[in-house]
């Protein structure tokens, strides 16, 4: 149903007048069309295609180009990207910095990507860092985190957090936390819990202290998936279950309360889902297999209904107006 049909129906029902219909129709046909997200997508794809194309050219012509030429080219491109970003950046501020030069954001992203490629190339070809792989990971992580705060760039922040997790031997992508991490090793479980709690704490502090408060969501989202998921694995498979239970429930309560402050359905879902799984497992683990089998159907029916009703009323809980 197009705008003209809708306006005609409103006029026929005498909800609006012919004059109001003409004004609305004129506005809809003459207003500018935003291509903001289309341009952003094209620029991100351009960076992806550029870096991929450079990689393919290097791979196919490595014997004729030479390693030194390749390294020098990547280094010059990286320096040019960071120089351009510094030149066109605004002064640092604890608040969100909205740079009118949007191109600098994508140039910075390209510079971070080429810096990572340069370091990886040097390590692969000349073993620049030897077997100290932790050093090779932490250097770009520091560069990305510095760039994120200096130039107010969420993409660089995500790259920095990902690098920090890699330094600890973890994968932090929400869809890969359980499938890509070897949580059979308790050391990794503990590292994931500590890193996740640290990220959540940074997200909370950044909002409370108003230091790059808009970075809070990135910290909370990444840490809020990593720590509870690791706590679940610890609760399922490792000793000191009471510790993992308290951590998981504490984070679930935090995100439920945080969802009210931020009016965020995502945080509410994170708190409810992780909390439900932790409480359900703990109840059935403590009452034994026979009682669990007898009460299982009733428990899941009642608890699922309770969760559904709670989520249906989420707007009331979050304080969102209809």
Q: Output mean pLDDT.
A: 84
Overall 3D shape: flat
Count of separate DSSP helical elements: 15
Query: Uncertain regions: pLDDT < 50 for 5+ in a row?
Result: none
What is the beta-strand fraction? under 5%
Structural class: mainly alpha
Give the topology string: H per helix, E per strand: HHHHHHHHHHHHHHH
Rg, Å, rounded: 26 Å
The total strand number stands at 0
Pfam family, one: DUF2157
Protein name: MFS family permease
Keywords: Membrane, Transmembrane, Transmembrane helix
Organism: Dyadobacter arcticus
Outline the structure in words.
- The chain crosses the membrane at residues 41-59, 65-86, 106-124, 130-149, 156-176, 188-205, 217-236, 242-258, 265-284, 290-312.
- It comes from Dyadobacter arcticus.
- InterPro entries: DUF2157 (IPR018677).
- With 322 residues, the protein is mainly alpha-helical.
- It folds into two domains: 38-167, no CATH class; 204-322, no CATH class.
- 79% of the residues lie in helices and 0% in strands.
- The chain contains 15 helices and no strands.
- Helix 11 packs parallel to helix 13 (265-287) and helix 13 runs antiparallel to helix 14 (289-312).
- The radius of gyration is 26 Å and the shape is flat.
Question: How would you summarize the topology of this molecule?
Answer:
Blueprint: H1 3-12, H2 18-30, H3 36-60, H4 62-65, H5 67-87, H6 103-126, H7 133-151, H8 154-167, H9 177-180, H10 186-208, H11 216-237, H12 241-262, H13 265-287, H14 289-312, H15 314-318
Helix pairs in contact: 1-2, 3-6, 5-6, 6-7, 7-8, 10-11, 11-12, 11-13, 12-13, 13-14
